[in-house]
Amino acid sequence: QVQLVESGGGLVQAGGSLRLSCAASGTIFSINTMGWYRQAPGNERELVAAITSGGVTNFADSVKGRFTISADNAKNTVYLQMNSLKPEDTAVYYCNAQIISKGYRGQHDFWGQGTQVTVSS
Predict the structure, then answer these.
(1) Which of 9, 16, 27, 36 could in theory staple to 115 by disulfide, Cβ–Cβ 3.0 to 4.6 A?
(2) Where are the extended beta strands (E) located within the chain?
């Protein structure tokens, strides 16, 4: 089974920056997409940013111009650089990857454990 391990969450003041990382390990044949979702209490989980193996990116409108996503395909790792953070960015951030691996037919969604990001005013 594939495992996604996240790191980089924490507490930061409004206007500050934080970088999240997510590394995939296990029996991986290929990774189609990696990205980040977030969920605040009472809210639905929403896509923050995603990147394909070819480098095509997608961002939520609320984070465009502030967040950057990048990937190191050789290391099966994705990064989320978060700048100009706002209190409304406070949420649990989950790494997601669409991966072709042993034991699955076609791509399968894998999820990280989640990391808390708290932005204070």
Answers:
(1) 9
(2) 3-7, 10-13, 18-25, 28-39, 46-52, 57-59, 67-72, 77-82, 91-101, 108-111, 115-120
Which segments in the chain show pLDDT lower than 50?
Answer: none
For residues 19-52, one letter each, b for 16 or more C-beta atoms within 10 angstroms of the residue's C-beta and e for the rest, the string is: ebbbbbeeeeeebebbbbbbeeeeeeeeebbbbe
Sheet with 18-25: strands ordered across: 3-7, 18-25, 77-82, 67-72
Quote the tokens at residue 71: 């990937």
Q: What is the pLDDT of residue 104?
A: 80
Contact 109, 98 (CB under 8 A): yes
DSSP code at position 88? G
pLDDT of 75 reads 93
- The count of residues in the chain is 121
Give the Cβ contact number of residue 110 at 10 Å. Answer: 21
Measured between alpha carbons, how far is 111 from 22 in angstroms, rounded to an integer? Answer: 10
